[in-house]
């Protein structure tokens, strides 16, 4: 067989383009990111669900961008000629799952998942072909309590990562306000409304003059009033422009007022009204929000979400109110790295046992087992290297503690425990090894 | 948009065929399976790695069954005309990762992962198109210490699941023994060796008479000696037949003797010699093992592994000795269910707060936050249902504890904590709620 192989071309060690290998130090970071997410969302009563990455392609044709299905997904025909897609997002899947068991499930439903998602795009910083995304959804709550909680959860995760209130902003809007203004105040046609929404969405990417120019084609003489509304620095200001100019109050404003008041009462000081925030055109039906990185060198949206009460209707199920958000691992990892909030790598293994000879393997194993029973993670060096080289291995593996076992240690049952980070050494018993390591000394 | 949707056909809530949705009670089981695996393998010093499910198809053409690549994998061309495969197994990926960073990595390397794997097969019990598989590998150890440890890890996982020694057997063989006998004792051609190996592999599926008949076509008059060797009930018996008949000792026997002795010393009482065990034809180069379900109604292999020292050579890297195994979630789940070893479902949420009115939301939130800070997972019922119906919701969600908060509770700061399983009720403070729930009372 070895001969066979030498006749072949060697296989490349490169993985597939645009996806990641997770070596243990990378996996440590993924596990840190996920553990923090899990802990925060579970503390609010969210429970985990999951699904296969394989979905019928049909699921994505229903809503939200034919464009995504056609150009950006991994879609193919399976050997049974069925159209399959590697899920590009989790929302259609969770909607499918809720719709399928709607009668059996108890609402309100607090669900979360950390799926991997696939998009066929040109690999670039922060845009990979496979990434992970925390999805948090609250189903079955019609009132603003759902938004208060979901935004509190998003805030709690940022806090758990060590982000300070002035590191980020929670931008909030209600899509009903813009809808109301466009249809009931400006009396726009569907076509003009859509045109204006598109314009608002790209407002930050074009110059103010350009924005005004293009807005005028839709709003004519009302343009400047509209611009001043969009630039309102607070909900109050926005409301007063609306009242003073049009003697009306938009649907959705009161909800936002309750939301901002509740968030303030709950100690969330960095929530701001953002009248241009729309977050895409498809799912959302009400309040939307976005967590925004305030880093002056990299101002950008980190993640966001909102209310999408209509989603389940594509399955022919009666509507289920839903509020949720998605938080990607790549973006949050960049954010934490830029703020120096990422913990340094260490192995999950607590202790490395170096062997002086190969004659005491049973005794060495017994020591390891004893410590494992006390809750430690223990690896034994099975190489025949000299002890200093075994210690170097432990150090390279980022294992924090070592002991060396030879005849003496087996006789005396006393071990010199060395902390490889501090260099500190102490003579201890097995019981003391467990205690010292658990204390992290 | 709602109108748009009503014009469309409804989308089916069925997922893709042969894969699973994990509703919270299913996810609870997955998390139990994975947590137990992680805990056991990490205690032996194994650290987690991972990789994308997308791999270049080329990776699977190198070794191990053209058949698998051609017929059983999900392989397709991406939009850039590259051949991509959804990984059907993890070993080629881990070999690729080790080969890619061989010079930087510190050996011995103890690595584990719990990847999802994809095979295009007819969905049936225990054979899904997507399943998860714990992969545990020890790289860089040439001697039998590696096998002793890897088999101890497999045993430790079974123990952690609550399996008793007489629930399963660890069957062990060394492929070098059969190789030695076929080439050096029987002087078989490569073709006849292969034919005989295939026969041995299917020995348990055909009648003894059929096996003898087919074996005779290869071994002629040596058939009965060979059959008696294969039926040896112990390593000693096997060894003595070999010595008495052929005056030789097979390569690989001594290694097995050391292994069995070490396993016995380590308290593993259910390891047996199994001279017919081969475990496929590709990777393995030495000792192989299999954990076998002794359930009389369902005797079968649960999982297995062995030594594969040649794998990295397909990457043009010098050899790295490796011993490992893979343990699938579907098989082990079946095993645990058949032995009633699966824990009953409960929510990760500890406590459900029912609201008497909607007028105290801030106070209710404060209570929840206080308890979250004390480490509890707390959900609030935001519905306007009557309290008994809110309690029913908690019960349906399998949340173990509830409190009801109204004006009284806010005034007195005393809460009636109810254990929904036992029905027990106690008047307690917030501090006592945390203590009681953590004690699990």
Provide tags for this entry.
nine-stranded mixed beta sheet; disordered N terminus; elongated; 441 residues; 19 strands; homodimer; 17 helices; alpha+beta; five-stranded mixed beta sheet
Number of strands of chain A: 19
Query: Kindly, what is the distance between the CA atoms of the first and last residues of chain A, rounded to a whole number of angstroms?
Result: 51 Å
Work out the radius of gyration of chain A.
28 Å
Q: How many H/I helices of chain A?
A: 17
Provide the helix percentage of chain A. 40-55%
Which oligomerization state do the chains in this entry correspond to? homodimer
Summing up helix and strand content along with how strands pair, one would put the structural category of chain A as alpha+beta
Please describe what this structure looks like.
The structure is a homodimer of 441-residue chains. With 441 residues, the first copy, chain A, is α+β, with helices and mostly antiparallel strands. Chain A has helices at 2-7, 24-43, 58-61, 66-72, 91-100, 145-160, 175-185, 190-201, 208-219, 223-230, 235-246, 253-265, 329-338, 361-373, 387-396, 407-412, 430-439; strands at 21-22, 47-48, 50-51, 54-56, 74-77, 83-86, 109-113, 116-118, 130-139, 168-174, 271-273, 287-293, 300-307, 322-328, 351-355, 378-380, 401-405, 415-419, 425-428. In chain A, the strands form 3 sheets. In chain A, strands 2, 7, 8, 9, 10, 11, 12, 13 and 14 form a 9-stranded mixed beta sheet that branches. In chain A, helix 14 (361-373) links the parallel strand 15 (351-355) and strand 16 (378-380). The longest helix of chain A has 20 residues, at 24-43. The relative contact order of chain A is 0.10. Chains A and B meet through strand 1, helix 2, strand 2, strand 3 and strand 4 of A and strand 1, helix 2, strand 2, strand 3 and strand 4 of B.
């Amino acid at each position: 067989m070895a001969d066979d192989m030498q006749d072949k071309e060697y296989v490349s060690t490169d993985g597939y383009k645009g996806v990641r290998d997770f070596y243990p130090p990378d996996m440590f970071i993924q596990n840190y990111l996920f553990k923090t997410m899990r802990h925060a969302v579970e503390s609010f009563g969210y429970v985990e669900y999951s699904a296969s990455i394989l979905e019928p392609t049909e699921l994505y044709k229903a809503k939200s961008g034919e464009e995504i299905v056609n150009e950006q997904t991994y879609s193919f025909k399976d050997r049974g000629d069925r159209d399959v897609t590697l899920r590009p997002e989790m929302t259609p899947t969770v909607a499918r799952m809720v719709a399928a068991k709607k009668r059996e499930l108890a609402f309100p439903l607090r669900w979360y998942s950390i799926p991997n998602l696939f998009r066929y795009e040109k690999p670039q910083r922060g845009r990979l072909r496979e990434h992970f995304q925390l999805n948090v959804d609250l189903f079955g709550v019609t009132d603003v309590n759902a938004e208060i909680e979901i935004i509190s959860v998003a805030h709690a995760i940022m806090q758990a990562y060590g982000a300070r209130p002035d590191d980020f902003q929670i931008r909030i809007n209600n899509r009903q306000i813009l809808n109301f203004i466009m249809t009931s105040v400006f009396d726009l046609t569907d076509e003009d409304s859509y045109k204006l929404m598109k314009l608002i969405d790209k407002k930050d990417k074009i110059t103010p003059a350009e924005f005004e120019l293009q807005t005028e084609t839709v709003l004519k003489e009302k343009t400047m009033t509209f611009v001043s509304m969009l630039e309102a620095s607070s909900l109050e200001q926005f409301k007063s422009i609306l009242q003073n100019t049009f003697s009306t109050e938009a649907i959705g404003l009161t909800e936002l007022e309750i939301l901002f008041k509740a968030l303030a009462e709950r100690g969330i000081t960095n929530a701001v009204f953002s009248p241009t925030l729309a977050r895409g055109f498809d799912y959302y039906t009400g309040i939307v929000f976005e967590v925004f990185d305030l880093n002056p060198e990299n101002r950008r949206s980190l993640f966001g979400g909102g209310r999408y009460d209509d989603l389940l209707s594509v399955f022919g199920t009666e509507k289920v109110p839903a509020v949720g958000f998605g938080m990607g691992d790549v973006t949050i990892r960049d954010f934490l790295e830029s703020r120096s909030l990422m913990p340094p790598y260490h192995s999950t293994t607590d202790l490395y046992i170096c062997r002086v000879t190969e004659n005491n393997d049973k005794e060495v194993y017994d020591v390891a087992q004893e410590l494992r029973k006390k809750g430690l993670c223990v690896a034994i060096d099975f190489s025949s290297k000299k002890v200093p080289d075994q210690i170097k291995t432990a150090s390279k593996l980022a294992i924090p503690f070592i002991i060396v076992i030879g005849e003496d240690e087996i006789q005396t049952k006393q071990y010199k425990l060395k902390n490889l980070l501090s260099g500190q050494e102490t003579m201890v018993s097995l019981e003391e090894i467990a205690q010292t390591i658990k204390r992290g000394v």
